[in-house]
Amino acid sequence: MARNRIGIWFIGAKGGVASTAIVGLLALKKGLTATTALVSELPQFKRLELVDWKDLVLGGHEIRDISSYEEALRMSTESRAIDGGLIAKLKPDLDKLDKAIRPGTVAHSGSTIEGFAMPSLRTKDAKNESPRAAIDRLQTDLKKFADENKLAHVVVINVASTEPPCDTAQFPAKWSELTKLLDKPKKCPLPASSLYAIAALELGYSHLNFTPSLGSSLPAIDELAREQKTRHMGYDGKTGETLLKSVLAPMFARRNLNVMSWVGHNIFGNMDGKVLDDPANKKAKVTSKDRLLGQILGYPPQTLVSIEYIASMGDWKTAWDHIHFQGFLGTPMTFQFIWQGCDSLLAAPLVIDLVRFTERAWRNGDTGMLTFLASFFKSPLGTPEHDFTVQFQELEKWAAAVK
Q1: Would you tell me how many other CB atoms lie within 10 Å of the CB of residue 254?
Q2: Which of 149, 150, 50, 168 is nearest to 99 (CA)?
Q3: Assigned CATH topology for domain 6-237+345-401
Q4: Which residues pair with 154 in a beta bridge?
């Protein structure tokens, strides 16, 4: 197989998830870590001949003014999640990476996210930048990245902070209509996540949205992807509590146990937690975490999902779930679980997997929504299926059929 150089372009390149994925990729390149937690390294995917670590080139957009090394080090000093010795070994690579990371955009990202942005992105001129101008600027960065590194393809993946939800009904369903609005800021309040998606897809690059933000989920942007014969998928990575819901809810359904209520309480303290402490941003995340139960069970139980920012937790997320269900003869019973994991370390390997599978889909000529990747997302585009086992079987079917 001829080896291609493939770019990974991170949106939110210095956030916890991106930093952890980058540390992992650099460590894999140097043989400093094993492939534990990487789905793409399972035996059933070996025949795909997925892109090698050494052929991946890293870059990205970021809104904060901080070094990659400093952000990676926080995962050791504040969250106690990554060995500081490993990060020290990778410092030259992380310092070099900073040259490939460009200022992003905070368009319609909400006041909380804007508050974290570097001063240059909060000036009057920056705020008056039209959607089209922002897209052009982002595309200039992407094209330079691809040209300078002689890349065969670029996979853009959004791992930035969660934006507040927006009313999607205000946007036209056809790309030909939406593109006309891009020069009219007041008539086109597209959030940053969607501008990144358009920038990538117009260039024929692949786009993945690991966040609950709008991204490429609009029908018009899906149409753009199909017109450009490229591919996209999202949204909101399924890493912890919702992953367990997608495994456990089918058990209740298949045993014909009536779930009366399902309550989930989440606490964590990283940057994402700070952003989600804003009720507007939190709403998008809660909606994404709560929508799968009705689809799997076939009826809507009473649900409650809470997410609270606790600074001392760092990147460690704890979820406590209480499930109240009826058994035989109507007897009420309970099931409870506690899930504690390092948020970024749960997400980072999935980010790497998604990039590798998407790159293989590019080589395979797959276009549009990559629905076979549904098992990686809380709210997968293009499919109503939320049962993790069924979703994973679709990934295996796709892998078996790849040419």
Answers
A1: 9
A2: 149
A3: Rossmann fold (3.40.50)
A4: 7
Structural class in CATH, domain 242-341: alpha beta
For residue 205, the one-letter residue type is Y
In our burial notation (b when 16+ CB lie closer than 10 A, e otherwise), range 146-185 reads: beeeebbbbbbbbbbbbbbbbeeeebeeebeebbebbeeb
Tell the burial category of 90 from Cβ atoms under 10 Å away from its Cβ (0-12, 13-18, 19+): buried
pLDDT reported for residue 150: 97
For the full predicted model, state whether its pTM sits above 0.90.
yes
Q: Over the chain (403 residues), what is each successive 10-residue block's mean pLDDT?
A: 86 96 98 97 97 97 95 90 95 96 92 87 82 96 98 98 90 95 85 97 98 96 98 95 95 98 90 68 66 92 92 90 97 96 95 98 98 97 96 98 94
3-state secondary structure of 106: coil
Contacts 24+ apart (CB under 8 A), 338-341: 339/240, 339/241, 339/244, 340/316, 341/239, 341/240, 341/316, 341/317
Pairing of strands 206-209, 56-62: unpaired
Which residue type does 365 have?
G
Nearest CA among 58, 38, 49 for reference residue 155: 58
Q: What is the pLDDT of residue 282?
A: 59
Reported as type and span, the H/E element at residue 321 is strand 316-326
Mode of pairing for the β-strands spanning 258-268 and 316-326 = antiparallel
Q: How far apart are CA 320 and CA 203, in angstroms?
A: 43
CA dihedral (366, 371, 375, 377) positive or negative? positive
Confirm if 385 and 374 have CB atoms less than 8 A apart. yes
Helix%, strand%, coil% for the chain, nearest 5: 50, 20, 30
Nearest C-alpha neighbor of 218 from the set 237, 191, 245: 191
Tell me the C-alpha to C-alpha distance, in Å, between residue 250 and each of 322, 333, 335, 388: 16, 17, 14, 9
| Per-domain boundaries in the chain | 6-237+345-401, 242-341
Question: Nearest-5° angle of CA 306, CA 310, CA 313?
Answer: 115
Q: Determine the Cα–Cα distance for residues 151 and 205; give it in Å rounded to an integer.
A: 11
